[in-house]
Structure formats: C-alpha cells, structure tokens
Specification:
Blueprint (H helix, E strand, L loop, with lengths): L1 H18 L6 E3 L24 H14 L5 E7 L9 E8 L2 E9 L8 E8 L2 E7 L2 E6 L2 E7 L6 E3 H20 L3
Antiparallel strand pairs: 1-9, 2-3, 3-4, 4-5, 5-6, 6-7, 7-8
Helix pairs in contact: 1-3
Length: about 180
C-alpha cells in the first residue's frame, strides 16, 4: 500500500512539474489526432451532438457524474506514506463490473489531503483525467489533450506529454487494483 501511495504522490509531482517546464519541440495536443464519430445502424444523427473531442468527452463526463448514484460505489483508505500525513481515500464507481469514475484525494506538500483527482472511463478505458491543476483527455489509451484547470488547451513538449500519459495510465491502473 505504501508503494501505491508513493507512486501516486510521485506521479502527481511529475504531472505538476512537467506542466511548468520550458518549451521545447512543442506539440499542440489538440491537433494530434482526428476524432471519428462513426454511427452504427442503430444510431441516428443528433443535431445537438458535439463535434469536437473535447465536447464529446465532457458530455460523457457530465453524464457519468449525473448517473453516479446509480453505480456501485466502493471506497478504500490507504495508509499515510509518511508520519504525520493523512491517509489517502480512493472511491470507485462501477457499472456491471466496469469502472466509470475513480477519485483519489491528493496530498499537498505537508501531507494534508486537500486535492482531488478524478478519472472517468468509457468501456473500461480512461477518457478523462482531472488532476488538481490540470485536465487530460484520452482516446484509446493515448493522451490527446492536455489542458489547464480552466480547460484551456496547453502546448506541451511531446516527451512530456508521453511521460505524463504513461504516469497517468499507470497510477490509474494501480488505484483500480487497490479495489481487488
């Protein structure tokens, strides 16, 4: 459990420090991948359906939050990683055994659990990760947008995007495994 909590704190530190690094080989993550909105035979075209990936994912996030009380909720408390620190609380909401939302309290510099991160899933895959000071959109396990806390798209160096993507996916999987 200590290893899991230490990894979460280190991942958060990586995410926060990477966002503050200098610009180099900047990639606009907004332009990195087109979105396909293919319809199946059973679907109809909805004129109010959002057209860009940010709108699509945020619509899904809002729907998950709206339906949270219909999902099965589990909570796990992890022991503090340092003496004097507070324990971390993880909450997982699932539907038919598939994760829908995962939250984790996040420690500040003195170990007080003042922050909260949230991960949202569709078909068992991460689609949105909200950290205390940033937001990240995913498609097929790849980060496609990195935004600030106000949802403004950021230009982040490619190597930092990849590093954060790996860290976010890893910590999310570790946190889900705490419920098994």
């Amino acid at each position: 459990m200590k290893k899991l909590l230490l990894c979460s704190v280190l991942s958060l530190g990586l995410i926060l420090s990477v966002g503050c690094s200098k610009k180099e080989e900047v990639q606009n993550t907004q332009d990195s991948k087109p979105v396909t909105n293919e319809l199946t035979n059973n679907e109809s075209v909805d004129k109010d359906e959002p057209k860009d990936i940010k709108e699509i994912v945020m619509k899904q996030v809002k729907m998950i939050d709206k339906e949270l009380n219909t999902y099965e909720k589990k909570e796990v408390k992890l022991p503090p990683i340092k003496e004097g620190w507070e324990e971390q609380t993880l909450c997982l909401w699932s539907k038919d055994g598939s994760p829908m939302k995962l939250t984790a309290t996040e420690a500040d510099d003195i170990g007080k659990m003042d922050g909260l991160s949230s991960a949202y899933f569709k078909d068992g895959k991460l689609i949105f990760y909200k950290a205390p000071f940033s937001n990240h959109l995913f498609e097929n396990e790849k980060m496609i947008l990195w935004m600030d806390e106000n949802m403004n798209v950021l230009d982040i160096p490619t190597q930092n995007v990849k590093s954060a993507e790996i860290g976010i996916l890893k910590i999310t999987k570790e946190r889900i495994s705490a419920f098994n």
